[in-house]
Amino acid sequence: MTCTAVVAISLATSAANAQWAGSFDKIFPLEGVPGYSAEEMVINCGGEYPNARARIYMSQRYGRSVVMIRVRNAPPNALFTIWLKLASPSPLTGAGVTALANPADIPDLAAITPSANLTETAEMLGLSGDDGSGGTSAANGFTTDERGNGLFFAYLKFPIMKGAYQFQEFDESLAPVAIDNAPFTLRLATHCTDERAHGLVAGKHEMFFDWKYPQAMDED
Fold first, then answer.
1. Would 197 be classed as within a structural domain?
2. Of 130, 90, 93, which is closest to residue 108 (Cα–Cα)?
3. Can you name the residues that pair with 7 across neighbouring β-strands?
4. Backbone φ and ψ of 140, nearest 5°
5. How many domains is the chain built from?
């Protein structure tokens, strides 16, 4: 059963300073993914996990965001990565998402990104990727325990709600990119086929949970 409610615990008059607690939508197994059927996802991850759920607790103040995400009853001993939806493509990968991590983490994330997925801009800025082997951990990831429970915490130096990813903090030649809210703001992905993170791109993965920031914030 999918939970769709998002509950604000302190909905301020502006997204600049506010707090939220809410539930992610469980979207696993997702139908219609090219080259990766829902049936394959279930087999690779060892089941459908009907009781899996995720919650987010977030505060935003002075252009910073604190994010805590709890996952329950998900695939055990599984690597999750967290993705931020962008309103326009990332200048470093051309993808419509980027890792939920600080700009200071970009070099380390790039180092486990397949070289073929880095743009010319990224290469000109001195970033280099890998052969696709990836890494067992990443700044935007966490691993569940044997019961399928996991926790992610991050202090982010940019606002998520009505904010932008601060690419210029990595290199001043880049511009910030606005954060989108459709069809999601944050996505949690599993990597049941290789249990590897692939830096600034998701690689082959299973879309597990989506979260959108409260619609009320769009009405301010």
1. yes
2. 130
3. 21
4. -100, 20
5. 1
Using only C-alpha atoms, the chain has a radius of gyration, in whole angstroms, of: 17
**Which domain range does residue 208 map to?**
6-219
Evaluate whether residue 1 is within a structural domain. Answer: no
Total number of residues shown for the chain: 220
* Rounded Cα–Cα distance for residues 159 and 61 (Å): 8
Q: In the structure encoding, which two tokens stand for residue 191, read together?
A: 């990597």
Token readout for 53 is: 């759920």
Residue written as token pair 């252009």: 63
**Residues with Cβ within 8 Å of residue 28, at least 6 apart in sequence:** 41, 45, 48, 49, 52, 190, 206, 207, 208, 209
Say if residues 38 and 5 touch (Cβ distance below 8 Å). no
Cα dihedral 164, 211, 54, 111 sign:
negative
Q: Burial-class residue 99 by CB neighbours within 10 Å (0-12, 13-18, 19+).
A: buried
- CA–CA distance from 83 to each of 40, 42, 182 (Å)? 22, 21, 13
Express each pLDDT in 25-67 by its tens digit: 999 999 999 999 999 999 999 999 999 999 999 999 999 999 9
> Tens digits of per-residue pLDDT, 168-185?
999 999 999 999 999 999
